[in-house]
Design brief:
Layout lengths: L8 E6 L15 H4 L3 E3 L4 E6 L5 H12 L8 H6 L7 H5 E5 L6 E6 L3 H10 L16 H12 L4 E6 L7 H16 L3 E5 L12 E6 L2 E5 L5 H11 L1 H9 L3
Parallel strand pairs: 3-7, 3-8, 5-6, 6-7
Antiparallel strand pairs: 1-2, 1-4, 8-9
The structure holds adenosine-5'-triphosphate (ATP).
């Protein structure tokens, strides 16, 4: 049987040393405390969970361990970002990778997208569909430009809440793009709250919560259940929400 190129990132294992202070960030986050290992799906792995559950903390540590900048972007941004601050969790992570390197890599974060856009403008790296400065585009347009224009396939892509900038319609477009890139030998690891993105077929969905990190089925996620219930019954749910105590 031929060896599979994907997943490029197969597994992370956390080895915590005796020096770890479990009372301080990031080790006081329950999902980090419970982190032993994560096996990634060859196509798409999602990190989900409440705000503050630790999704970005773990995704960021993986990104840094892979050589990305904290700000995100590709490896060019990483190399030119000398102010790289090493997150402590990185030191605990061991990465198990495929024999094959991805041809493309990108760490896309809504939070720091402004910095990456500035870097790309300064480098005059305007390969986006608009060919314009990313700063003259809306947040969502610029985010979509990066996804459409810079993710070139056969890649390993880490996305942190990509939906933050995207309309529901653009989230559908992002889903289609993710599918095209998966079919072109790409792997995604995505932290998200979007019930639209989470619908990606056969993805591995990992729920971060107080008990640790567990795999869940799409229709068992709160994202699916709450959104579906609210949209189907929103007048009643609004009345319940706004009722006096
Ligand atoms: N630099 C920091 N110093 C101390 N605590 C931090 C720091 N960054 C994050 N935290 C805390 O760590 C916890 C996990 O944060 P993280 O950003 O990983 O959550 P998240 O699951 O990505 O949340 P969200 O869905 O809101 O983005 C939170 O309680 C947060 O307040």
């Amino acid at each position: 049987m031929a060896l599979a190129a994907k997943p490029y990132l197969q597994r992370i294992t956390a080895l915590f040393g005796a020096e770890v202070d479990w009372d301080s960030h990031p080790y006081n986050v329950p999902a980090v405390q419970a982190l032993e290992s994560i096996d990634f799906h060859a196509d798409v792995t999602f990190f989900i969970g409440e705000n503050g559950a630790g999704k970005s903390t773990v995704l960021e540590a993986i990104a840094l361990a892979l050589g990305f900048s904290l700000d995100g972007g590709n490896f060019n941004v990483s190399r030119l970002n000398s102010a790289q601050e090493q997150a402590p969790l990185v030191r605990a992570l061991r990465l198990q990778k495929s024999f094959k390197f991805p041809q493309d890599r990108y760490f896309l974060r809504a939070e720091t997208f402004h910095h990456v856009a500035s870097f790309l403008d300064a480098a005059n790296d305007r390969t986006s569909s608009s060919k314009a400065s990313l700063h003259t585009r809306s947040h969502g347009e610029a985010f979509m430009d990066v996804m459409l224009g810079r993710l070139t396939g056969k890649g390993l892509y880490l996305l942190d809440e990509p939906e933050a900038a995207l309309s529901p319609n653009r989230q559908l477009a992002a889903l289609r793009l993710i599918h095209q890139l998966v079919q072109d030998q790409s792997q995604f690891i995505i932290a998200t709250h979007s019930p639209i993105l989470l619908a990606y077929p056969n993805a591995k969905i990992l729920l971060f919560d107080d008990t640790g990190i567990t795999e869940v089925a799409y229709e068992d996620t709160e994202h699916y259940a709450i959104t579906r219930d609210f949209l189907n019954h929103y007048p009643r749910r609004l009345a319940q929400l706004f009722a006096p105590e």
